[in-house]
Design a protein that fits this description.
The complex is a heterodimer of chains A (326) and B (315). In chain A, a hairpin with a 2-residue loop joins strand 12 (261-267) and strand 13 (270-275). Chain A has helices spanning 53-60, 82-87, 104-114, 119-133, 148-159, 178-193, 205-208, 228-235, 248-255, 278-292, 306-324, and strands at 13-24, 27-38, 42-46, 68-73, 76-77, 89-92, 166-170, 197-201, 213-218, 221-226, 239-245, 261-267, 270-275, 296-302. The radius of gyration of chain A is 23 Å and the shape is globular. Chain A has eleven helices and 14 strands. Chain B has 315 residues and is an alpha/beta fold. Classes of the chains: A alpha/beta (326), B alpha/beta (315).
């Protein structure tokens, strides 16, 4: 990748994770994880429930000691200097840890106190946070009555009061309206352009699309790492086709019997088909559908979505795991 | 408005529904119909009125004005009849955390008056469909978020309702489990069960047969996902680039481009006319030496449409 924005050099890496392992009794939550995140990168964690995303983030926040391996965050070792790590990060969860019965200003002051930002510096940072969040003139509103998008930007402002070089966002735009969501991501990408490293963990592909790179985790291991566009290109082996038919149910029964079709998934009024070669599959599908007397409304090659990529990669990883088992 | 069809055509008929809470009108003159066997999505952000609408349909909350018929029964006049036909899965489905998967299913089967034989057959089929057959003896409290949601659905489906009401059923569920969950819903719809579900995620809307886009208690649009996208004025063009942020800044002011949205390593451009602007955009990028992969016209997303409509409303 032509990294025009980020100057290369030793300072350009803000998080280093080497051979990280976390065990809870017999259960391995994080299984030999290794990666680096650059300064100013928006780095996403994706993975099924229980894949180790939260455990990894808790280790990187200095909240949980790794069993073995090493992680350095903003230059500090998470196992040996957890307090220093916590001073250099911001954390925002989907639950927006705001005090609903406090006003906007009181929440900001509370978080200022928590991060030991005081006096003139606190006033300056609060002014910055209010402006960034678009909450100027609403300082004395009770947090409980704010719309979701505003709460979310206030929570971000609180998490950033101490200007941390690294922020962790856990499903940050869950339930927020699309307009506010776009505005939120504008802010995040602006911060990243200014050099803040942003970690995002999410189940939602529309959030994942905003990341520069994505790490796909499964059972504590990293099974893929790359830009969303790279993952989409690499993940689906073969072609992806969309089939719409007069009768969806009959179409499913027909294509499932064709050897050319590797996988089928229903999407609303259509079917997503994974095939080895589109041209070959198209002939087979047209013949089989015609023979059964089911009309084709649409049959075309489509670009895999990030979700298609996610499903293909996780399925492949669990299949190869199953094969490896005796 | 078209004349109303006979009862058996629509599983759900909502007309001019209004529901007020002390400080807010949660549902504001909402009207829509859902055909039997249809998967219908109520789509919108928090506060759009989705949950309130579902509660009214479930017969657990009376509206201020308007009417709602569910499987031929009026939700206000005959809520008990409505409850016979439906299964309602609220956002926090009441699973007993200290009971096992099997025990939870049994509890709900007894609640719905399902016989032991029916229960065993339905339970085996549903657990297999969602990949949970091996978890029958696990306490529900030890399941992952996705599995809890799936168990909730199994419990809600242990009897066979005519109408299934699901409130944000895939919240916190990973994409793989989400596909399994949806495969179950498609299977049910194929067998004639009507499904009304809600979601705050617009990519989830794509899976419904038809969606109602809601915003602050009102209906913005109601149509099939494909047709909704055709309602977006202008066109959307996408460009992928290793310097996407710079590219966005360069293209934001090109004529005919009304908006530029940075999404990771891609930029979405909202243009008046794709055929005319793509060559211009390409020329601007080449002349300024901005690296890019390709400039392509893409289908507008439902989010694009939503943002466009809400922006127009608030202007």
């Amino acid at each position: 990748m032509a990294a025009g924005v980020f100057a290369p050099g030793p300072d350009s890496i803000s998080v280093i994770v080497e051979d990280l392992v976390k065990r809870f009794g017999a259960f391995t939550a994080v299984d030999h994880l290794t990666f680096e995140a650059r300064r100013g990168e928006v780095f996403g964690f994706l993975g099924p429930n229980g894949s180790g995303k939260s455990t990894t983030i808790r280790i990187l926040c200095g909240l949980l000691r790794p069993t073995s391996g090493r992680a350095r965050v903003a230059g500090y070792d998470v196992a040996r200097e957890p307090e220093a790590v916590r001073q250099h990060i911001g954390y925002m969860s989907q639950k927006f840890s705001l005090y609903n019965d406090l006003t906007v200003m009181e929440n900001l002051r509370f978080y200022g106190g928590l991060y030991s930002v005081t006096g003139a510096l606190l006033r300056e940072r609060i002014a910055w946070a209010l402006q960034m969040a678009g909450l100027e003139g609403r300082e004395h509103r009770r947090t409980a009555v704010l719309p979701g998008g505003w709460k979310q930007r206030l929570a971000l402002g609180c998490a950033l009061l101490h200007r941390p070089p690294i922020v962790f966002l856990d499903e940050p735009t869950s339930g927020v309206d699309p307009l506010s969501r776009r505005r939120f991501w504008e802010l995040i990408q602006q911060m990243a352009a200014e050099g803040v490293t942003v970690f995002v963990s999410t189940h939602y592909m529309d959030e994942a699309e905003y990341c520069n790179r994505l790490a796909l985790l499964m059972r504590g291991r990293m099974i893929a790492l790359g830009a969303p566009s790279e993952l989409k290109l690499d993940a689906v082996q073969g072609d992806l086709m969309l089939l719409e038919a007069d009768s969806l149910q009959r179409a499913i029964d027909i294509v499932r019997l064709l050897p050319q079709i590797r996988d089928t998934a229903v999407f609303g009024n259509g079917l997503h088909l994974v095939v080895a070669r589109a041209a070959e599959a198209e002939n087979a599908i047209r013949q089989a559908m015609a023979a059964a007397g089911v009309g084709i409304v649409r049959l075309q090659v489509i670009r895999p979505s990030l979700e298609d990529a996610f499903v293909a990669l996780t399925t492949r990883a669990s299949e190869s795991e199953a094969e490896a088992r005796p | 408005m078209e004349p109303l069809m006979p009862d058996e055509t629509y599983a759900v008929e909502v007309n001019g529904l209004v529901k007020d809470f002390p400080a807010v009108r949660a549902v504001n003159h909402l009207s829509f119909n859902v055909a039997a066997g249809e998967i219908f999505g109520l789509v919108g952000p928090d506060g759009a009125g989705k949950t309130t609408t579902l509660r009214v349909l479930a017969g657990v909350m009376a509206p201020q004005a308007g009417s709602a018929m569910v499987c031929g029964s009026d939700v206000v006049r005959d809520p008990e009849a409505v409850k016979q036909h439906i299964s309602y899965m609220p956002q926090r489905f009441g699973l007993y955390e200290d009971l096992t998967v099997r025990e939870n299913i049994r509890f709900y089967a007894d609640l719905f008056g399902v016989s032991r034989r029916e229960r065993e057959a339905a339970s085996a089929r549903l657990l297999a469909a969602c990949g949970m057959s091996d978890f029958q003896n696990r306490p529900a409290g030890t399941l992952s978020g996705g599995m809890k949601q799936k168990l909730g659905l199994v419990c809600a489906l242990i009897h066979t309702p005519k109408l299934l009401l699901l409130d944000e059923p895939t919240n916190g569920v990973d994409p793989l489990s989400r596909r399994e969950f949806w495969a179950m819903l498609y299977d049910l719809a194929g067998r004639g069960v009507t499904i009304v579900n809600s979601t705050a995620y617009l990519d989830e809307a794509e899976r419904c047969h038809r969606v109602a886009l809601m915003h602050r208690g009102r209906l913005l649009f109601c149509d099939q996902p494909d047709r909704l996208k055709q309602r977006m004025p202008g066109a959307v063009v996408a460009v992928t680039s290793p310097v996407a942020s710079r590219l966005r800044d360069e293209l934001g002011h090109v004529e005919g481009v009304s908006g530029a949205l940075l999404i990771g390593d891609a930029v979405r451009l909202f243009v008046d006319d794709a055929a005319r602007r793509i060559p211009e955009i390409t020329r601007v990028l080449d002349s300024r030496g901005v690296p890019y992969d390709e400039v392509v016209r893409v289908t507008p997303s439902i989010e694009d449409l939503f943002v466009n409509a809400v922006t127009a409303l608030e202007r």
